[in-house]
Design brief:
Largest sheet: 2 strands, antiparallel
Shape: globular
Strand order of the largest sheet: 1-2
Number of domains: 3
Order of helices and strands: EEHHHHHHHHHHHHHHHHHHHHHHH
Length: 420
């Protein structure tokens, strides 16, 4: 007798108890909450042959910019590959294998096949959406979720998360009014949906409503700043609103009390810290010795050769710290990687290496070189991934370099990095 999950997707190897734990793990995954790993452990203890529990465990690791986490998914795939599985589950395993082989486009195509087969597959939808974000595929961020929406309804668990994904795709496509409406619809179903609050922050950012954005995040902090996976990032957004209102000193307090306390070495937290501290410095605040601590956190990732978005933020930290040695080491890794026929090699050649060299040039006060490199980045620079708000760091640096040439300081400039 065939068993089904709570969205009528056929599943293999589950028991009722295991399915209950799996659904709780999936709810945490969709809601950007902790606890999914523990629930999956319960599910697999009760039903070691539960294929989708193995698949979700692998996807939790693969939806990361940390190559160590990504590699850790391989044993889970190996165990799942030996189990009986239906067509949809086999497509999941094939997509997991593609992701492990660094073929993200192949994984996205296989997940699209899953969604054509079963548009209510919440795991496939969320992972494909995450991969669209990581690969900077703005068109698919919008189109993919919109394409399956007719198959969903308020009666299905996790519908609020689907609406929040739809809202983010709309926001990244410049449909700000529709994005806000979709985010508010998600919050009407689940006021604690951290993803929907995150979309609201983006909408406020992109529409220039900094005071309203800060008020929103403070008013709803209980829903995103606790056990949410976006807690640090939410404070990052709040600090951007403080900078936009002309209060970089307040943003620096937010950095100290929320973004770098505790001093996490998780990739996502390091990215937020680099991006925020760089913006604070561009806004004129004294960032002091904070750069050295942050640069230390990035050191372990110099030779990852995995994610251009990571490389850019690591370079921000090294340049901010005035650390010539580590900045040169990272540049050397990118020079070597650009010759490789890999995803990272192509991205390094087209975007990563010139962008990192531009940051280094800006740091040593070579504004013309920084402007030349940043202005020459290809139109596909969005392919480094992240959001428009995150990628704005390149535009802000370009504008700062232009402004320094237009209005040179009367005293010799104290640059961040003396020589690279």
């Amino acid at each position: 007798m065939t068993a089904y999950d709570h969205r009528d997707c056929a599943i293999t190897g589950a028991t009722p108890a295991a399915l209950q734990s799996y659904e709780q793990a999936l709810a945490a995954f969709q809601g950007w909450r902790g606890g999914a790993d523990a629930q999956l452990a319960h599910a697999l203890e009760a039903a070691p042959g539960f294929v989708m529990a193995h698949a979700l465990r692998a996807w939790l690791l693969l939806c990361s910019r940390d190559p160590q986490a990504v590699r850790a998914a391989r044993p889970t795939l190996q165990r799942a590959a030996r189990l009986p599985a239906n067509e949809r589950e086999r497509l999941h395993l094939a997509a997991i294998r593609s992701a492990l082989e660094d073929d993200y486009e192949g994984a996205k195509a296989q997940l699209a096949d899953v969604l054509r087969l079963q548009p209510r597959d919440a795991v496939a939808l969320q992972v494909a959406h995450a991969f669209d974000y990581v690969t900077g595929d703005v068109e698919s961020l919008d189109r993919r979720v919109a394409g399956v929406l007719p198959a969903w309804s308020h009666a299905l668990p996790g519908y609020h998360a689907v609406l929040a994904m739809h809202a983010f795709g709309l926001e990244e496509s410049g449909e700000y009014e529709r994005a806000e409406a979709a985010a508010r619809a998600a919050l009407a179903l689940d006021p604690a949906d951290a993803r929907a609050h995150h979309v609201m922050a983006h909408v406020f950012e992109m529409t220039g409503r900094a005071a309203a954005g800060e008020h929103w995040l403070r008013e709803h902090a209980a829903h995103w700043a606790g056990d949410s996976l976006v807690a640090t990032h939410g404070w990052w957004h709040l600090a951007l609103f403080q900078i936009a209102q002309g209060h970089p000193g307040a943003a620096l307090v937010t950095y100290d009390t929320h973004v770098r306390d505790p001093r996490s070495v998780a990739i996502a937290d390091l990215i937020d810290a680099s991006a925020l501290l760089w913006r604070i410095r561009l806004a004129g605040a004294d960032t002091g010795a904070r750069w050295s601590e942050l640069a230390n956190g990035w050191t372990a990732h110099i030779d990852d050769r995995f994610c251009t978005f990571n490389d850019l933020h690591a370079m921000l930290a090294f340049v901010g710290a005035g650390d010539t040695v580590r900045a040169c080491r990272l540049e050397g890794e990118l020079v070597a990687s650009q010759a490789l026929p890999t995803r990272h090699g192509r991205a390094s050649r087209d975007i990563g290496l010139p962008a990192c060299r531009a940051i280094a040039a800006f740091g040593r006060g070579d504004d013309m070189q920084a402007i030349t490199l940043l202005a020459s980045l290809p139109a596909l620079a969005h392919r480094i991934g992240g959001s428009h708000a995150q990628r704005d760091v390149l535009h802000l640096t370009l504008m700062a370099a232009v402004e320094r040439i237009r209005r040179p300081a009367r005293q010799p400039r104290q640059v961040m990095l003396e020589a690279l």
